[in-house]
Amino acid sequence: MVNPAWLLAAAEVSTRYVSVFFVNRRPHTLHAMSPLSRYQKQMLFHGIGQQGQIRLRDSRVLLIGCGALGCVLADSMVRAGIGQLRIVDRDFVELTNLQRQSLYTESDVGQHLPKAIAAVERLRAVNSEVELEPIVADVDFRNIRGLAEGADLILDGTDNFEIRYLINDVSLESGIPWIFTGCTGSHGQMMPVIPGHSACLRCLMPSPPPTGSTETCDTAGVLGPAIGVIASLQAAMALRILTHSDQPDKIPQKLTIIDVWDLSFRQLDVSGLRDSSTCPACRSGERLWLNGHQSSGSTILCGRNAVQVVPPDRIQISLHELSLRLQPSGAVTSNAFLVRVALADSDLEITVFPDGRAIVKGTEDPGIARAVYARLIGVWTTSRANMLICGLAFSRHLWFENSSICGRNSVLSFRGAETNPATRVSLITDRVKHQWKRRMGRTLCAAPDTERPAPRRIPWSVELTTNFIGATGWNRWRRTSVEEPFPSKMVRR
Fold first, then answer.
1. Do 203 and 277 fall within a single domain?
2. Cα 242–248–254 angle (5° rounding)?
């Protein structure tokens, strides 16, 4: 006969064992998993396999633009297990983005977070094994080479042709493949570009379509499902390129066009386009966008009723000091990434980033945006002696053009309007000899005597109003007479 005490003891031990087993099962299983186990279902697919997954793990991808397309692309790449993803975006999250940009929430809107920052915060919770690098910047010919360095693939998440032609140039120059993708209304299009093997964007379209000749999200809107379909096709093509990087001939050379409203799907064979076209980018190495010949200082943002204004030179400004200076202009909000002011005297809103870029919301006129930018931002300084002067307001007798004082090889040009409208005098110095002294120097800049043009009397008086960041109380100066081509002395008003 079995002793009842033994049964109770056995039951107690069994209960403890079972409870311990179930409580500790998940952590134990996770620790026992191999580094690739989370991609088991993906590796079962014949086109990837274990070897393809290892290639994905070792790959580095540059994603330019993290709006509607970029959100789908970033999420797909991180879940697929690529090694490194660099996300570059110039914008911040707004309420109208949430209809189609799947990585963002209302909390991101309330915090005025840049898209790159908000996206990375969300993606880190998805896959901590992927190295994520958010960069809040505007991609242009000055920084794209550095951004693309070391990348195995460039993904197009942008919304304008200027950046796409720039990506095309850097792709051909560096040999890094990229995937062209666009979406408007209910239809989207996608085409891979493999330098040296397939047609490029300029083979397909030698130049960007004229302004107003094509639909935009402002005129035709955009459907979230259309974004999801075409971006998913782009993500699938990205996986194919990354896992077959040594076999470019296996990448289909086709332009894919879809319409989710009409449920249509078309593909155009572009394999012979490169050989049959006279593309100057492929044939003669022309790089108009990469060399800066086709760049602009302001960009209308699609669907935003906003214009981005970019300073001629990249600089760094203090957001804290800027927020204090802009307090009289309207309601100011700021965080570690930007400063935003809703102007009290108009319906405009301007958002400024640390690199000097600004997005002026409430207008699609670049002239108005630049004027607001000059009035509010005016001058940025990285130090007392190294600065960029912009947005000076002069009398009717003289105005400055392309005014910059930026250390070495500084150039200042001006024109005497009443004496000779065609006269331009350039003062070129190897360096700024005299720095600003006592918060505003008595001598602004002096060049060697051999470089200074002969004095010329010009009947003008200058009254300039500037906005300086980082120094208050000395923003008005007057010069009433001059016998030099450059006002070397200024007296405080």
1. yes
2. 95
Largest separation between any pair of C-alpha atoms in the chain: 125
- The rounded percent of the chain whose pLDDT value lies above 70 is 66
| pLDDT above 90 coverage of the chain, percent | 45
Question: Are both 231 and 334 inside the same structural domain?
Answer: no
Task: Tell me the HSE value of 73 on the side-chain side, using a 13 A CA sphere.
Answer: 32
Q: What CATH number does residue 315 fall under?
A: 3.30.310
How high is the pLDDT of residue 48? 96
Which residue in the block uniquely carries the two structure tokens 């999250």? Answer: 93
Give the mean pLDDT of 402-409: 33
DSSP state string for 171-227: HHHHT--EEEEEEEBTEEEEEEE-TTTS--HHHH-SSPPPTTSS--TTTT-B-HHHH
Enter the DSSP assignment of 89: E
Per the listing, tokens 């319409």 go with: 259
**81 near 42, Cβ under 8 Å?**
yes
* Domain stops at, among 230, 260, 283: 283
Q: What is the CATH number of the domain that holds 187?
A: 3.40.50.720
| CA nearest to 47, candidates 88, 80, 86 | 80
Given pLDDT bands bounded at 50, 70 and 90, which one contains residue 308? Answer: confident
Confidence of residue 435 (pLDDT cuts 50, 70, 90): very low
Domain around 331: 298-377
Which contiguous run of DSSP H or E holds residue 108? helix 106-110
Q: Do 181 and 330 belong to one domain?
A: no
Q: How far from 153 is each of 51, 85, 127, 156, 324, CA to CA, in Å?
A: 18, 10, 20, 10, 42
pLDDT of the residue at 381:
31
For residue 51, what pLDDT band results from cuts at 50, 70 and 90?
very high
* Cα distance between residue 139 and residue 133, in whole Å: 15
244-268 confidence digits (pLDDT tens): 988 888 899 999 999 999 999 999 9
Q: Which residues contact 243 (CB under 8 A, 6 or more apart)?
A: 47, 48, 52, 55, 56
